[in-house]
Amino acid sequence: MRRSHPRTKSDFDLVYKTIENWRLAQLTRIDEAFDGPERKALLCKLHKDECALLSAVEAQKIAAKDGQDKRARERLLSHMSSPIEFFSTRTGERTFMETPWITRAKELVSLYRALVDKKINLSERLDLLLSVTVTVSVRSSYVT
Q: Of 94, 74, 73, nearest to 85 (Cα)?
């Protein structure tokens, strides 16, 4: 699993080490069994195969980074739009308070999630963009 779908640096290090071990084994096999133009052709093929593998690993690395960025962004948005929690040491109760800024953050988060959604059609997206402009322009004095 770690080699087929790497996500962390140690997973990618393991994949790179596996590729390097494979390359060295292939190089040893080619050096022992072939010589002359056949050897040169097989070395070129080995280099081409190694480049293809490294390119695929880099694509997986980019996809893993995008996934991590998306999860971090969602955690941040969730944290920014969650109510403030107070814990009473006397009674042991939890009290949640929602400020106007948190309500505003919830509105903006819902607009952001709707904008990110790729499943909506053109007319819905235009309505959404209109609501974004209205929402942002209503309270522009808070931003500036």
A: 94
